[in-house]
Structure formats: structure tokens, C-alpha cells
Amino acid sequence: MAVRIDEMDRKILAALQRDASQSLDEIAGEVGSSKTPVWNRIKKLREAGIIGQHTVMLDAEALGFEACFFVLIRTSEHEAAWQQRFLAALKARPEVQEAHRLAGDIDYILKVRVANARAYDAFYQALISEVRVHNVTALLSMEEIKSTVALPL
């Protein structure tokens, strides 16, 4: 369903990206509208698939997940059966926060959040026991400088 996004929709989306727990009254006040039109626009954006899952951002370090690894994977396997096994293995692992298939020398990049290097090794050993990969390079993030899920509306 194609939906046209106007400036008011963009303001509403920006407000929701900043804090989705705001009340309709707060959002309406922020965007210069009233509650009912804002609710109708949010409903339209949900139905169109522009607004997806509602969730909460947790502090990984406060919960003991102090290590963030970016894992670069090269594979010599490109058939459908291998890809299905690989994707299933990634989806089954909660440590994998993001996974991307790339163009270029590296086939996949993963963002993996774990407690420490030992926990990463356990993740790595489990992954390679399920699917064969040609080369794996793990890069430990020393400092998170910026992290956001907000789109530049």
C-alpha cells in the first residue's frame, strides 16, 4: 500500500522516533495539531507499514553486555541450502543484533553483543559448528560513538 507522506506525517514520525511513549496529546502539541488527526495519521502510517514494531531501547552495558563485535564473514558457499542454514543460525542467536549481506570482498557483516570475549568465542564456536564459512574476522568495538535507529526525516 503506497502512502504519501507529508510534512505533518514527518513531524509525527520524528516525535515518535524521539519518544514513542509520549501521549497523543503530547505529540499533537509538539506537531501543532489536535489529538484525533494525529491518531488518524498514526493509524494510517501503521496500516501502510511505515510504523512497525514498538519496542524499548535497553542499555546493553548496564545489563552486562559490555562487548560489541562486528563480525566480517566470507564464504565460498553461495547455494540456497547453505544460505537458508546460515540465515536460520543467525536468526536463532539473540547475540546477533544486526546482520547484513554485502557487496564486495566481505559477504556478511554481523553486529554481535555479548558479555565478554569468552562469550563471543562461545557464539563463534556454535556458529561455525552449524554452518561452514571460509573466513571470519571479529572486530571489537572499543567505544560506541553514535548509535541510533532514528531515520533522518
Automatic annotation (TrEMBL):
Gene3D superfamilies: 3.30.70.920, Winged helix-like DNA-binding domain superfamily/Winged helix DNA-binding domain. Keywords: DNA-binding, Transcription, Transcription regulation. The keyword Phosphoprotein does not apply. Residues 5-66 form the HTH asnC-type domain. One of its GO terms (biological process) is response to amino acid. GO terms for cellular component: cytosol. The keyword Transcription applies. GO terms for molecular function: sequence-specific DNA binding. Pfam families: AsnC_trans_reg, HTH_AsnC-type. This is Transcriptional regulator, AsnC family. It comes from Cognatiyoonia koreensis.
